[in-house]
Write a structure and sequence with these properties.
This protein has 238 residues and is an alpha/beta fold. It has nine helices and six strands. A six-stranded parallel beta sheet has the order 3-2-4-1-5-6, with helices on both faces. Helix 1 packs across helix 8 and helix 2 packs across helix 7. This is ParA family protein.
Length: 238
């Protein structure tokens, strides 16, 4: 039961949208998904409350540093993937969540502020590897990318990541109206009305390609690392 954590210490990086796209695609493929909503804005929990419950998806709201290990233990028997949506700010939960993860995904838009928020997560990952020999697999996913225009800022972000030898997913998350509409309808892309949502087919294709690429790095039958205790991770990050 792999744990996939989405982290960027800057809000508005497209983190929660990426969580929702991956979760609904994994569920559509028959996986049982438990979303751990640790974001105080509770967008995922509100999405789940808005519409009919999506098959194969459980959402646990108000996940905190004190409850995360208990919640994972309780839901492990009926979960194929845990997807963790962290706060869009620095928090004590960050180091512990990363230490419990099988893969960390860092959404970054093509702007300097997002890159700085992502860099804080990358620095923590490097610190854990250098100081505690704890290596957590991780990737950057470019989010809210304009399908028609590559901006100078996006090129700068790509160059910065390449210079740091950071793996960037081949599939960016394209800016689509359908992704914004998900939060209003409380459903997945496959339950939306194509006559009312523009470019829905392209949104589905993009979300599926994104999820399939992530699955290539985190298959659900992969042997997972033993979870680190909160004390171990916090001591390493101190």
């Amino acid at each position: 039961m792999p744990v996939i954590t989405f982290a960027n210490t800057k809000g508005g990086a497209g983190k929660t949208t990426a969580v929702l796209l991956l979760s609904t695609e994994l569920a559509r493929q028959g996986n049982r998904v438990t979303i751990l909503d640790a974001d105080p804005q509770r967008w995922i929990s509100r999405w789940h409350e808005t519409g009919d419950a999506t098959a194969n998806i459980t959402v646990v709201p108000y996940v905190t540093l004190a409850t995360i290990q208990t919640v994972i233990a309780q839901h492990r028997p009926r979960t194929d993937y845990f997807i963790l949506d962290l706060p869009g700010a620095s928090s004590p939960l960050l180091a512990t969540a990363i230490g419990m993860s099988d893969h960390v995904l860092i959404p970054i838009q093509g702007c300097a502020m997002d890159a700085k928020g992502g860099a804080q997560v990358l620095e923590l990952l490097k610190y854990l590897e250098d100081k505690a020999n704890i290596r957590i697999p991780h990737s950057v996913v470019l989010s809210r990318v304009n399908s028609m225009v590559t901006t100078r800022a996006l090129q700068a972000v790509k160059s910065l990541l390449a210079a740091r030898s950071v793996r960037v997913l081949d599939t960016p998350i394209i800016e689509r109206a359908a992704y914004r509409d998900l939060f209003d309808y409380g459903c997945s892309l496959y339950e939306m009305d194509a006559t009312r949502v523009s470019n829905l087919d392209r949104a589905k294709e993009n979300a599926e390609a994104f999820a399939n690429e992530v699955l290539g790095y985190v298959p659900n039958r992969a042997a997972t690392r033993p979870s680190l205790s909160q004390r171990d991770v916090l001591r390493s990050a101190a």
